[in-house]
Write a structure and sequence with these properties.
The chain has 95 residues and is an alpha+beta fold. It is 24% helix and 19% strand. It has two helices and two strands. Strands 1-2 form a two-stranded antiparallel ribbon.
Length: 95
């Protein structure tokens, strides 16, 4: 399910897995095979994953850390925010 725009686990019994490649959805495409992947990467920060089954719910938080090599050359969180904003505008224009 990597790259899926709105990942949902199957409702059939058994063990299922969903993964996130730390990317926002990419541009829309008429070809379902190409719709959604290759979006801009998520910013470093704290995120929350939630699983709900019937009335039961579990949540976990996790962090995405900044790549130390990026930080080492002077890139700031504000730089990454600006880059993400531009990338999302480009994605939306392509869509």
């Amino acid at each position: 399910m990597v790259g899926t725009v709105n990942p949902r686990l199957p409702t059939t019994p058994g063990l299922h897995r969903v993964t996130w490649d730390f990317a926002h959805p990419g541009p829309w495409s008429e070809n379902p095979e190409r719709a959604g992947p290759d979006g801009p990467l998520a910013l470093p920060g704290t995120y929350r994953a939630r699983l709900t089954v019937g009335g039961w719910r579990a949540e976990r938080t996790f962090r995405i850390e900044m790549d130390p090599r990026v930080e080492e050359v002077g890139v700031t969180h504000a730089d990454l925010e600006a880059q993400l904003a531009l990338s999302l505008r480009v994605r939306d224009a392509l869509t």
